[in-house]
Amino acid sequence: MTKSVDFYFDFISPYSFLAYKKIKLLNKNNEININYKPILLGGLHKLGDITAPAFNERKMKNMKNDCELVARKNFIEFKWNDNFPINSLGLMRGYLVVDIKLKKKFFDLCFDAYWKNNIDLSDNKNFENILDNCSINKDSFFVEIQDQKVKEKLKQLTNEAFKKNIFGAPTFIVNNKIFWGQDRLDYALDEYSS
Q: What is the DSSP letter of 32?
C-alpha cells in the first residue's frame, strides 16, 4: 500500500487554505501523495457539538489575526473574506462532482477567490465565474450538486471523519495518526517521510 497524507478540508476554513498553499509550495514535484478529503465543516462541528470560532467574537478576532500572521510568515497572499462565514455546501459538493482533470483548477480557483481575492462565493454569479474559468457546464453542475448520491457522499465523508475523531479542518492523517491544524503539517510530513 502506498503511503499518503489524507488532507481533510473545507473551502470555508482559512486554515485549510493556508495549509493548502504550504502543501503546494512543498510539493511542486508531486513527490508527496496527497489524498484530498472534502468534508462539511459545519456538519462536522454539529456532530461533535462544537461551536465554531466564527460564532464566538473573541475567537473570531484572534483567528483573523492568527491567519494574517501565518500568511505573512509563509509569504502567502491572504485576505480575510468580508463574507465569512458562508455556507460551503455547494462548494464542497462541487468538488465531488467536478471531473478529476479539473479538480486541481477548481480547488485553486475556489480557495483563491474566497481567501485571497475576498470574493463572496455565496453569490451565484461569482461562483459561476469559477465554473466558467474551469470550462464546467453550469447547468449540469448545479443539477449534479443536488443529486441525492452526491449529498450522501459528502455526508458520508463528514461522518467518516467524525468517526476517526476529526473535529476541525484542516486535519491530516498519516499512518493512522491524526495531525490537526495547518501548524501541524510539518509533523504530518515528518510522519510521511519516516
A: S
- C-beta of residue 174 within 8 angstroms of C-beta of residue 3: yes
Handedness of CA 61, 63, 66, 67 (dihedral sign): negative
Report the alpha-carbon distance of residue 156 to residue 172 in Å, rounded. Answer: 18
d(CA 79, CA 14): 10
Domains detected in the chain: 5-193 (3.40.30.10)
Cell numbers for 120, please give them: 463572496
Rounded distance, CA 35 to CA 150, Å? 19
Can you tell me the distance from the alpha carbon of 184 to that of 176, in angstroms, rounded to the nearest whole number? 15
Backbone φ and ψ of 48, nearest 5°: -90, 5
Report pLDDT for 53: 76
What's the pTM? 0.94
Nine-digit cell at 122?
A: 455565496
Coil, helix or strand at residue 109: helix
Nearest Cα residue to 115 out of 74, 80, 69: 80
pLDDT tens, position by position, 97-125: 999 999 999 999 999 999 999 999 999 99
